[in-house]
Amino acid sequence: MIKKPATDRRSALKLAAAAAALAAGAVSTSRAGAQAQKTAAPDEDESPNKGRSPNFQKIPFGDARLTVISDGIREGEGPHPTFGANQPAEAVAALMRENYLPETRFSNGFNPVLIELGDQLILIDTGMGAMGRENGMGRLTRRMQRAGHKPEDVDVVVLTHLHGDHIGGLMEDGQPAFPNARYVVGKAEYDFWTSDAARSGKSAGNAELVTKNVVPLKDKITFIAEGDEVVPGLTAMEAFGHTPGHMIFELKTGDKRLWLTADTANHFVASLQRPDWEVAFDMDKAMAAETRHKVFDRVAEERIPFIGYHMPFPSIGFAARQGEGYRFIPLTYQFDVKA
Ligand SMILES: [Zn+2]
Q1: Does the N terminus or the C terminus of the chain have fewer Cβ atoms within 10 A?
Q2: Distance 52 CA to ligand 1 centre (A)
Q3: Which residues are within 8 A (CB) of 319 and not within 5 positions of it... i.e. 6 or more apart?
């Protein structure tokens, strides 16, 4: 089945706005303009899941407060062959069917997180920025303002890795989008993306974006490795494979712990239930699979809540062991009810 891409819907909205303006005909142009504005507004405010859920969610957690913000969603063909790249299409379709998901279309969300911890406002990843805006992404700064946080209030921007959907929002018209922030980046990750190896072949396009969006901020970057603290209570862990220096983070507040697993698992069914299936986005596929097991074995065994950047909004939940992998359990009221 072929579904209309989001852009078609957008053009339809624009057409509707134009039609409304035309219909206004004899009415003054300013009213027609206002009408068009009114019709276009829901598009700007478009929520993930086509308005069925809000586009940011605040989650109190110990002495910290998390705000998960949807930068947008991208619908496309799949999950095969992006997920289960080394599997027959039918195997992936069957797993989707089993999980009540469409077999040949999927929706990918992009979910940066703000953490208020002590007196620091920390942003984890920055979304697509301007390059995603045409297609309904790049909404982070707009939506964080709606959630009550100005871009200039961000103290620290943490980049889990340097793929475009995480660094696209760093710059706005060639200027830092978070003008008062310092930055935290994995040393191995930065070294790779600024190497000659990264600048040729398949990774060249992304390396160019790193040159444009990350390198100009170099003087304000703290380079980190395994065990380093971003701020007290937020600690880095190596989770290499998706990219050569992909980092994940543990948030500790009081006796509570939460992991920010970034792109360790990118589809809540395909990557968690079948951690060994190859993922096209994983740069070292074998290492990424090994890392998925290592990280989610602990998440499951130690019952650690986690936020995954591409998990379904608000991208927070638990993982329980199931067969060869894990079952995603979205957060419901676990944090609200005192045991
Ligand atoms: Zn990503």
Answers
A1: C
A2: 23
A3: 272, 296, 299, 300, 306, 326, 327, 328, 329
